[in-house]
Design goal:
The protein has no helices and 28 strands. It is an all-beta fold. It has a domain of 139 residues: YVTN repeat-like/Quinoprotein amine dehydrogenase (Methylamine Dehydrogenase, Chain H, 7 Propeller), CATH 2.130.10.10.
Length: 328
């Protein structure tokens, strides 16, 4: 007999607007935090012990916050807003001050990607002012690294992910475009390594697991597109994963490589085994589109959570498959 679908372990309310982006920070010995960015420009810093907002920052002049991240090397929060700014925040000693910003010039919804290259430096990739342009700068000096523009008309850049292969190659970047194309770029050589047509519709989201050289992307269709990198850095399309309802806002693989979570336009979060993309659970709680999902990086696997942010202005937190059988 099938197990009943789980319920959230708890929910966070009070954001007052749709939740576009979520990001966990659970350093050893410190209070585990969840950052959320809303459509009204608010960044909430949720204390996961008290389950309350420790701090609320009004950011990006009230424009929608579409992406949040933190750096491993320090108390720095990075936020991206629809005001075409990426802001760096100093969180030391309870502060929340903007210490720097980068102008992107992009009016789209493409979320940035960050890759830490040393304890004090990181690369920031974002959609540029031109339709198909991706800009990469080295921070904190804002030194331009490259501008990547395909040699064909692929439409707007929809999603990007920077990563560094173990082979010794320089940084690489995956990018999904409006026409459904998926490209792999060599950042150092400023060249295109591989291109496939992953979807007939715009690539709404993608995630890539560098350890397994596997990725998955979503669109407004009723399916996820699975793909791998071969030894020549060519993208090879794999089997598709069919969904019950169309539309995926975001995809995330858990750090241990066991689970994939999808944020659905049908108000549901779906959980798959990452190894074989086997459906494991459908999480039903929200009353509107799920816009964002995130896995916590808590040191204790038993305390790891899955968070989902919705257009219904609520965040649900779930404890799933933390110490169970092989998920497949």
């Amino acid at each position: 007999m099938a197990r009943p679908a789980p319920s959230p372990v708890y929910t966070l309310r009070g954001a007052g607007a749709p939740l576009n982006t979520l990001h966990f920070r659970c350093p050893a010995g410190d209070t585990p935090l969840l950052f959320s960015g809303s459509a009204k420009g608010a960044i909430h810093m949720w204390d996961l012990n008290s389950r309350r907002a420790e701090q609320v920052v009004e950011a990006h002049c009230g424009n929608s916050v579409i992406w949040l991240s933190t750096l491993r090397s320090g108390d720095t929060l990075i936020s991206q807003g629809r005001d075409m700014q990426v802001c760096l925040w100093d969180l030391k000693d309870g502060r929340s001050e903007v210490v720097d910003s980068v102008w992107t010039g992009s009016v789209g919804f493409c979320q940035c990607s960050v890759l830490e290259t040393s304890p004090s430096n990181f690369l920031l990739a974002f959609a540029g002012p031109q339709t198909e342009e991706i800009k990469i700068v080295e921070m904190p000096g804002k030194n331009p690294v490259c501008s990547l523009v395909p040699d064909a008309q692929l439409g707007m850049v929809m999603c990007v992910q920077l990563w560094k292969p173990d082979s010794g190659l320089g940084p690489l970047l995956f990018a999904g475009y409006e026409d459904g194309s998926l490209l792999l770029w060599d950042v150092t050589q400023r060249s295109e390594l591989s291109r496939v047509k992953a979807h007939p519709e715009p690539v709404m989201c993608l995630t890539f697991d560098p350890r397994r050289l596997r990725g998955v992307s979503g669109s407004c269709e009723k399916k996820l597109s699975s793909w791998m990198l071969d030894s020549q850095n060519n993208i090879q399309l794999q089997d598709c994963v069919m969904l019950v309802n169309p539309g995926v806002s975001q995809l995330r693989v858990r750090d241990d490589g066991r689970l994939l979570a999808s944020a659905g336009w049908d108000h549901r979060v779906r959980v798959f085994g990452w190894k074989k993309l086997r459906p494991l659970a459908v999480l039903q709680y929200h009353t509107d589109m799920v816009l964002s999902v995130a896995f916590s990086d808590h040191q204790d696997p038993r305390q790891r959570l899955l968070a989902a942010g919705s257009k219904d202005q609520r965040i649900s937190l779930w404890s799933i498959y933390n110490e169970g059988p092989d998920t497949g």
